[in-house]
């Protein structure tokens, strides 16, 4: 019984190591379940380029002295990631805005009057909230694409 347990443990560890190595080497061809492939590789933004986005926001805060980063009332990675990684930076104020409200544009304008206003969004949010049509003052300044799908992150600045 002990030998069977040891063999099963060894096979499990080897399979885990093989899977991890494949995921690191080539995520698109790693042995993942459909749900994991969806979340971590293909159809969602999956965190690709999140480190670059956080770095870019730090650079903007350095340049401006302080910035406001607006997030939508959505628990999506593009909003959660910067809040987690930039939480200790006093130069960055985090504000959540409900984009369904009729006064969202006015709220953004009021915030932008205080200090530079940035908004990080993913491709699905831009379409769902008609961001570029409803808020012509938002200028797209950067984009980061998922290397395995059409998903992307975008960074906007309020430029009246």
Brief digest:
The chain is of the alpha/beta class and 160 residues long.
Query: DSSP helix count?
Result: 7
Strand order of the largest sheet: 2-1-3-5-4
User: What is the residue-mean pLDDT, rounded to a whole number?
Assistant: 89
Count of DSSP strands? 5
Rg is 20 Å
Largest sheet: 5 strands, mixed
Q: Based on helices, strands and strand pairing, what is the structural class?
A: alpha/beta
The fraction of residues assigned to DSSP E strands is: 15-25%
Q: Helix fraction?
A: 40-55%
Run of helices and strands: HHHEHEHEHHEE
In words, what does this structure look like?
- This protein is of the alpha/beta class and 160 residues long.
- 48% of the residues lie in helices and 21% in strands.
Index terms:
single chain; 160 residues; alpha/beta; five-stranded mixed beta sheet; 7 helices; 48% helix; 21% strand
Q: What topology emerges from the helices and strands here?
A:
Elements: H1 2-25, H2 34-40, H3 50-64, E1 67-72, H4 77-85, E2 92-97, H5 104-114, E3 117-122, H6 123-128, H7 131-134, E4 138-145, E5 152-158
Parallel strand pairs: 1-2, 1-3
Antiparallel strand pairs: 3-5, 4-5
Helix pairs in contact: 3-4
């Amino acid at each position: 019984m002990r030998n069977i347990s040891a063999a099963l443990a060894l096979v499990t560890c080897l399979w885990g190591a093989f899977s991890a190595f494949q995921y690191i080497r080539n995520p698109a061809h790693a042995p993942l379940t459909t749900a994991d492939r969806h979340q971590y590789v293909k159809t969602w933004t999956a965190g690709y380029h999140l480190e670059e986005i956080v770095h870019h926001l730090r650079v903007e805060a350095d340049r401006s002295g302080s910035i406001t980063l607006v997030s939508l009332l959505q628990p999506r990675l593009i909003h959660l990631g910067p809040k987690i990684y930039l939480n200790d930076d006093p130069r960055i104020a985090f504000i959540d805005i409900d984009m369904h409200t009729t006064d969202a544009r006015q709220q953004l304008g009021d915030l932008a009057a205080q200090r530079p206003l940035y908004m990080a969004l993913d491709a699905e949010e831009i379409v769902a909230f008609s961001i570029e049509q409803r808020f012509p003052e938002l200028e797209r300044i950067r984009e980061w694409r998922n290397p395995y799908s059409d998903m992307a992150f975008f960074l906007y600045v309020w430029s009246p």
